[in-house]
Write a structure and sequence with these properties.
With 230 residues, the protein is of the alpha/beta class. The protein folds into 2 domains: 74 residues, no CATH class; 136 residues, Nucleoside Triphosphate Pyrophosphohydrolase, CATH 3.90.79.10. It is 33% helix and 23% strand. The protein contains 5 helices and 8 strands, in the order H-H-H-E-E-E-E-H-E-E-E-H-E. Helix 1 packs antiparallel against helix 2 and helix 2 crosses helix 3. The longest helix is centred in the N-terminal third of the chain and has 22 residues.
């Protein structure tokens, strides 16, 4: 069962997609007003995804501006899930590589948006190099995640590809703008993980110890994941 904030995000995400698609395909002035109002409602719902379900006007304004910026005419602007790539890297002590994001202070796997001109595996290696200073070789596709099923609070749906990578060299060094810190962590001494990465981190340790051998994907109708990492 979803909690109220998770359900709000589901509803808000669907509303914003309907609104954005309506704004790029509807020539009627009245319809555009209605779709614009839907986008405003969706932004307000995203801004109420907190413990008290209270609207934060500043967040609502930021989300609305972000969504407005995604609206483009024609097929190019059609609302569809974005794609991102993340990397799983372990050292010889079976400790997992994590980065502390500068925008929210949470710890995550090295990750970034998919880049035009690069394959997903190339993006995985690039993100590790840029965010941590380490060189890796992607070896396996570990999973494909629908972020809406894994507690992500992004104001749009993301399909995230997760690659298991071999650590081959380099020295740890954080990105001066994107990360506050970097490090390797054991399963029992993890820092505060971003909610949207809890499933991926749990699967990473399961993959490392052989408990998970096949790529993960969200099965139709499967419940949202909220694993206990211990």
């Amino acid at each position: 069962m979803k909690d109220i904030t998770s359900q709000l995000i589901y509803w808000a995400d669907e509303l914003q997609a309907i609104a954005r698609n309506g704004l790029i395909w509807s020539p009627n002035g009245y319809d555009r007003e209605r779709y614009s109002r839907l986008l405003e409602i969706a932004s307000t719902m995203f801004a109420a995804t907190n413990a008290g379900v209270e609207v934060d006007p500043t967040v609502a304004d930021k989300v609305r501006k972000l969504l407005d910026g995604l609206i483009e005419d024609g097929v190019r602007g059609y609302a569809t899930p974005k794609s991102s790539v993340a990397a799983v890297v372990f050292n010889d002590a079976d400790e997992l590589l994590l980065v502390q994001r500068s925008d929210n202070g949470f710890w995550t796997l090295p990750t970034g948006w998919s880049d035009v001109g690069l394959s997903p595996a190339e993006v995985a290696a690039k993100e590790v190099r840029e965010e941590t200073g380490l060189e890796v070789i992607p070896r396996n596709l570990m999973g494909v995640y629908d972020t809406r099923k894994h507690r992500s609070f992004a104001p749009f749906q993301i399909y995230a590809l997760l690659f298991y990578c071999e650590y081959v060299g380099g020295d740890l060094s954080r990105h001066p703008l994107e990360t506050l810190d970097v490090g390797f962590f054991s399963k029992g001494k993890l820092p505060t993980i971003a909610p949207g990465f809890l499933s991926a981190v749990a699967h990473a340790f399961a993959f490392q110890c052989g408990e998970q051998t096949e790529p993960f994907f969200d099965s139709p109708g499967a419940p949202d994941e909220n694993p206990d990492l211990g």
